[in-house]
């Protein structure tokens, strides 16, 4: 028995080491990802749930490294946040997304929304306003076609968040609250912070008509959002049943594998051109 305990402990210890080593490796490799041209953006269409029309896209980062292979943003974004690498990476994302959206407009495609995920550590960085101003100046994209997706904030930085969002809205950007329902803040945040769109988290959409309480919650979130004049965007729609439920309950915009996975910019262009002809 004594021996078993010892083995268990060692097992745990070496596991932890593997995790730390992997994190260090990711951070190390991530440091050169921009200059080595290893980052890409994929884009997931945001769809009008009643007409099927694509009204925008969400930019989602992809990273392919020669040694590590494909690393998902769920794994490397938190490491980028801890290490400060989120600053140059976030800037690269904004620059690339705005440039792409402007290029689509210049090519004659109907102007649409580009949503970009912004980490809290990025948003609260002193240089953030400078960065977005610079990107807009360089790309010449009208700021109303850029939406910043932020996540729920904790109570203690809510004042700072409101002040930052007001300045961003003054420039002309749109603001969406991402992953709504998963954080710790209450509904009152919706009234406190300046928002355009509210994104209901995928975990709620998944449980539609499987879990009574969650289904009721989704209905209520949509109603409250509509009362506050917010557009409601449902994340992660995978089934026609979910799609129909959302339509019937006045949620008008959605994203999910049912419509399209995140795809390359070229693929988006093809999709939009096909839609234009038909
Ligand atoms: P998110 O902002 O909530 O993005 C939605 C995630 O759900 C994406 O995962 C997307 O590919 C996935 N998804 C979309 N539709 C469906 C569906 O129907 N079913 C399922 N199962 N999944 C769906 P992804 O691309 O792996 O990104 C994960 C997270 O990483 C994002 O969650 C976001 O928080 C973060 N992230 C991604 N790109 C960026 C970025 O450029 N900057 C920052 N700061 N964070 C990013
Ligand atoms: Ca998002
Ligand atoms: Ca989400
Ligand atoms: Ca998120």
TrEMBL record:
Keywords: Membrane, Transmembrane, Transmembrane helix. It comes from the Bacteria. Residues 23-276 form the EAL domain. This is PAS domain S-box-containing protein/diguanylate cyclase (GGDEF) domain-containing protein. The chain holds residues 350 to 627 of 627 of the full protein.
